[in-house]
């Protein structure tokens, strides 16, 4: 079966320092993959490399829907159906959310401007954002939960084939976490592939464990892969002990 995303011997250099040191990963259509690992293991770097961070030097194969996308700009990858929800969404003064989202719909999905307003407002209700919220500047004065729900709103509007989420569970309250998890389940049920990056397993309490494939990163490599049981081991024993038990601590 051909993978939606195929990463082969991926190496990523940030300011000439090798962060990702040879990762192989296949993500099929409709699959739910989770990337875990301690600080500095390369999780966020992997996400940004797939999306096309302009200051990263990438070696190896990065194949999406049968096409090598290493040389494509970020907007070209977005048009092909890749979406990244950031770990720390930035504030953008002077740009209203509604204007930004309508422009994104027009440029990425080709939605006529006269139809985009109602589309944004209707989808915003699904993540508990109001029309008044949409008139605010992007993330200015937003709580952690509001920022992450705005990221999910963008995914709902763009309808990507591959959704990459960098720690969507950080800085959010219980209600926001539950809502985000529900929307991830919904989009996954629609056949969208999910690549979720997290430190902790708590967000997976809201996801069907049988659908999850887990990969543990250490020093820029995948040290272990498994399922729900691997998350439970990490939660119970911590990364260091698990690495020692598998002999991958060196």
Keyword list:
single chain, six-stranded mixed β-sheet, four-stranded antiparallel β-sheet
Provide the succession of SSEs: EEEHEEHEEHHHEHEHEEEHH
Helicity range: 25-40%
Multimerization state: single chain
Question: How many DSSP-defined strands?
Answer: 12
Sheet of most strands: 6 strands, mixed
Estimate what percentage of residues fall within beta strands. 25-35%
Protein structure class: alpha/beta
Measured distance between first and last alpha carbons: 34 Å
| Low-pLDDT runs | none
Number of helices: 9
Strand arrangement, largest sheet?
6-9-10-3-11-12
Global shape: globular
- Mean pLDDT figure: 92
- Our Rg estimate from Cα atoms comes to 18 Å
What this model shows, in words?
The protein has 250 residues and is an alpha/beta fold. 38% of the residues lie in helices and 28% in strands. The chain contains nine helices and twelve strands. It has helices spanning 43-51, 74-79, 97-109, 113-126, 131-134, 144-158, 174-189, 228-237, 239-246; strands at residues 5-14, 17-27, 32-36, 56-64, 67-68, 82-85, 92-96, 137-138, 162-166, 193-197, 212-218, 221-226. It has a six-stranded mixed sheet with strand order 6-9-10-3-11-12, sandwiched between helices. It has a four-stranded antiparallel sheet with strand order 2-1-4-5, with helices on one face.
């Amino acid at each position: 079966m051909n993978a939606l995303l195929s990463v082969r011997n991926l190496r990523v250099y940030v300011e000439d320092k090798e962060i990702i040191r040879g990762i192989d990963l296949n993500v099929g259509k409709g699959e739910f993959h989770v990337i875990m690992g301690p600080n500095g293991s390369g999780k966020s770097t992997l996400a940004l490399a797939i999306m096309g961070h302009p200051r990263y030097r990438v070696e190896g194969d990065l194949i999406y829907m049968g096409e090598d996308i290493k040389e494509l700009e970020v907007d070209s990858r977005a048009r092909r159906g890749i979406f990244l929800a950031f770990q720390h969404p930035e504030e953008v003064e002077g740009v209203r959310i509604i204007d930004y989202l309508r422009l994104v719909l027009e440029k990425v999905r080709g939605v006529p401007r006269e139809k985009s307003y109602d589309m944004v407002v209707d989808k915003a209700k699904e993540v508990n954002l109001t029309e008044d919220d949409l008139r605010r500047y992007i993330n200015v004065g937003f709580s952690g939960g509001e920022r992450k729900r705005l990221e999910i709103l963008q995914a709902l509007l763009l309808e990507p084939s591959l959704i990459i989420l960098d720690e969507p569970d950080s800085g959010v309250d219980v209600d926001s976490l539950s809502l985000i998890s529900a929307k991830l389940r919904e989009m996954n049920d629609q056949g969208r592939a999910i690549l979720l990056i997290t430190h902790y397993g708590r967000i997976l309490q809201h996801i069907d464990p049988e659908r999850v494939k887990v990969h543990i990163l250490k020093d820029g490599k995948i040290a272990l892969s498994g399922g729900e049981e691997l998350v439970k081991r990490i939660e119970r024993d911590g990364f260091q002990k698990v690495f020692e038990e598998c002999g991958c601590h060196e």
